[in-house]
User: What shape does this take?
Amino acid sequence: MRSFKMIVVLIAFSSVSLFAQSAEELFNEKCVICHTAVKPTAEARSSFIAPPVMGVMFHVKEAFGGDKQKVIAFIKDYVLEPSEKKAKCLPKSIKRFGLMPSQKGNVTEEELEKIAEYMYENFPQRGFEPKQQRY
Ligand code: HEC
Assistant: This one.
């Protein structure tokens, strides 16, 4: 009986580590479906359903003067409670794509913390030129 319990505990622990996803994996799984993370070709742009993540992060960082804590807090809030009033991206973004659907139920606050930090650290990529961003 004791060894059975041990096995149960071991399985529980190993599955936690097996299923704990990295920030990048979480971001790819939960956000990239809509927000492309690679520099888009002109052709790809026409089929977008959301602005690419580098454009999003350029505008959000600009709005908060690059303040990491504020940017992360904004992302965490916006993803669960999006609104036109809060949006920092260009108004044409909402006009074209509509408001982002709340991701409540699709992502936890804990996951969002990791994702937001990952986005802050990785986007926009070096060499990104916002003026070329015509989506
Ligand atoms: C179903 C598609 C979809 C998914 C999934 C999605 N988004 Fe969005 N997102 C949008 C659209 C559309 C917009 C542009 C309209 C807007 O700003 O609300 C947007 C805009 C944003 C913005 C910019 C808001 C602003 O200031 O204007 C952020 C930040 C953002 N998304 C983060 C995320 C993160 C993080 C995830 C993953 C957890 C995610 N999104 C998943 C569709 C999506």
